[in-house]
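hey m, so remember when u said the tokens were messed up on ur end? i reran from scratch. heres the input so u can diff it against urs
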Amino acid sequence: MKPSSEILANYEQTARAKTTLPVWKLLLSGIFAGFFIALGGLGSQVASVAVGGTAGKLVGACVFPVGLFLVVTVGVELFTGNCLLPAPWMNRGTTNVTMGGILKNWFFVYIGNFIGGLLMACSVYFGHIDRMFDGALGDTMMSAAVSKMGLDPAEAVIKAILCNVLVCLAVWVAMGSTSVGGKAIAVFFPVMLFVLCGFEHSVANMYFIPNGLFLGSGGDIGGFLLNNLLPVTIGNIIGGSVVVGGGVWALYHPAKSK
């Protein structure tokens, strides 16, 4: 396991690469990442319904991390993980990472992630996956969408901050490991915890809520975007960029650690 000071130094080079990728690569990579997170979301729902009750919630939380594990090991672009990009930008005297490059990355990756989530939601709908367990899976999917769209905006922001603190810490620790097994362990515990606690992840919600809407949960796309996705995205940025990104920069950048 590499120390955080070394992870931060290495991440400056990674951030430069991420912020200079061409648009088509950002979009395609984002689609894959959104699809991977949605796969984890679907697997989590299937596991939860299969087991049932409180134990089902725990098992579902243990399945969900497969999405971020695939993102980390395949090396695709995830908006929530990329909320760490401001960390090297804060050292503006010695890095080529620009805010324009960060915003470009966020914008096109976010769109790609959204497309990936929608592709999985469409796959569930047209593949009739919701009919598993005599329709109980579909009921769970619709219930999840209703619950998420019914959150108070302030509650959504707070839950999203907590979520991306854990997601970005998972990504951070995974960057410190050079083995697949180490990355799997690094990702598993923080992501399992955020799912178990019911925190809000914008990219996961790009699958969960459209999936419920397609199945007839009620509500509309405007309510989804304004009542959930907007506050959750804001919270994810705060949790990833300010809390984790700002925190590790303040603690571990050489100029700050003296």
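this time it looks ok to me. The radius of gyration is 18 Å. if urs says something different then somethings off w ur setup not the seq
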